[in-house]
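Structure record:
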Amino acid sequence: MLTAKQLYKQELENCRKHFEQVDLEKEQGYLMKFTTFSATVGNLLPEIPRDNHATMFSQLLLQQVLTTFDQQCLTAGDLVKQRGAHKMLKKEAGPRIYCTYHLGSYRLLTSVLFRQGVDCVLLVGSNMNRTQGDGMAEHIEGLRKKHGLTNVFRVVETGSPSAGLTVLRELKAGRSLIVYVDGSPETAPGASDESQFLSVRFGNRRVKTRKGVGYLSHATGIPIVPVVSYRQPDMTNVLHCLKSIKPIVQSDREIYCQEAMQQLYDAFWPFLNQYPEQWEGWNYIHSFLEPEMPKNGISRRGGFRPAFNEERYS
């Protein structure tokens, strides 16, 4: 009789086989999506040969299929390998602000925390809520019924006018927040909300990032816990908890926000370098990239300039 882990990997293999039957280049919008992906990879990780971009993009699309399957599988969270300061994922750790990224099977963090009895508030963009919200709600309800869980789960949309106050109240009520700090397409900076963003280093470039996470941590005194999700070559999902970022009482809020967000992006960078084909952020990070300053000191307009791939089309 097969174990739960063997059955899980068998289903992942079935997902992979179905995926490989699809002719990606004939799929609607493929060329535009791949062009954006390739240009952004070239800007952030120029050391990756452009000839590798098509394979990376295919791997990313497969990763998205596997991530969707994981959300439908109630046992996927039980098979996750936890590394680092994983005691922070338990209810006994108290309320925390869990900051994660769209890397690997990133939705499993919510599943694991809820399974541990943690009262969770998931902060997501409106588009993500529309496309994934029902699936996550079904997953949570399935866990609730299977394990007799009674803890709280709530979704708050970042675009809601009352989102900040709602999350602040939830944190003060002892609930934990889960937030994706690497952004999403609908949370990119606009002309009217520039004051909500700050600039941080991201590799050799700089990106705009919302500072709300740092503000909430400083205002409530609740530590930030960076958590990185990734999938190993043997298909095992890993949640790696990094060192908590703790606010200092009576410290300057703006300085704390800047330092906390920089630490979050610094923590993510080595994982992105190791698993670049697992990051969904390639599809939208160009909206957050600051214009690069060339050597002559004249700034380009826009977040990046796509480079024509002469090798691919020669």
